[in-house]
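Lab meeting, action items carried over

1. Structure of the two-component assembly. Owner: GW. Status: complete.
Input record:
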Amino acid sequence: MMAQQLAVGDRLEPVTREVTNDKMIEFEKCVWDRGRNSHSDINAAKADGISRTIASGQNQMAFLHELLEVNLRDGWVYGGKISVRYIHPVYSGDRLTANGRVTEVLEQDGKPRVVLQVWCENQEGRKTSAGTVEAGQPSPRRSWLDTPGSHAQ
Amino acid sequence: MSESESEFKVWESIPVGDDLGSLNYVLTEQMVSDYRRVVDNPHAAYPTIAARHPANLFYRKYASVMRVPNMGHEAEYFNPPVAGKRITISGRIADKYIRRGSAYLVVEATAVDDDGRLIERSKLVGLAREVGKQAAHDNISKKWGT
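Predicted assembly:
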């Protein structure tokens, strides 16, 4: 089975997620506990010179990953590249939407690749992060869920 | 010495190519499921996003003198990590530069599991702030209006 191939100008199916204070705190603890910081603790934020906690950049990166996993599957997960800049703060209560648009289709080492603009925007339509992605064309497969220990759900 | 030069004194002392050493940890099933729950993505491939490999390697060596709030990220992903495997990360200072009066450090980390599978190579683009000085976050506050 072939997944539909992307062409220049195509938009990815967006992914929207709510950012809550509880999840900002949990994000700082999961996988590698970083203790209290400006993403999870108001006093730490004030000590850093900002008036309220802000979601970490990696939190936005997680949403961009979901966008790319859902739309490109193996095409992203095995060999994808991303470069993003965080350009506006994300707060508890924000509703972020991750977006992607194809800007180039090319071939690399005999394999089809796509280049995309990607960005997250908040509920007011303001971009909070922006960058570029290079990945394989969409695949029908999600091979990482077949790997023992991957905990497919 | 001008005020701006003194502001960058610690940043100037950190050389490009500086070896940040290595660390390792076991990515447990609990870590994977916690990450997937927190980001509302039951199929997330790279829970290592939350591990912040470059930042952890950098702060192990420089936490007492320098902070690097994350202004951007660049990464390449090769093979998703597998729960139960030990992951070894190694890092270096990949680049540094001054842009619009602010000093930046680019911190690179490479992650490999105990089977030798390359997982990811990621770069943190950090706005350098010497500990005890507010300059960098003042810039963030001005830029973001926080």
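2. GW to write a short summary for the group page. Key points so far: Chain A is about 25% helix and 30% strand. The longest strand of chain A covers residues 95-108.
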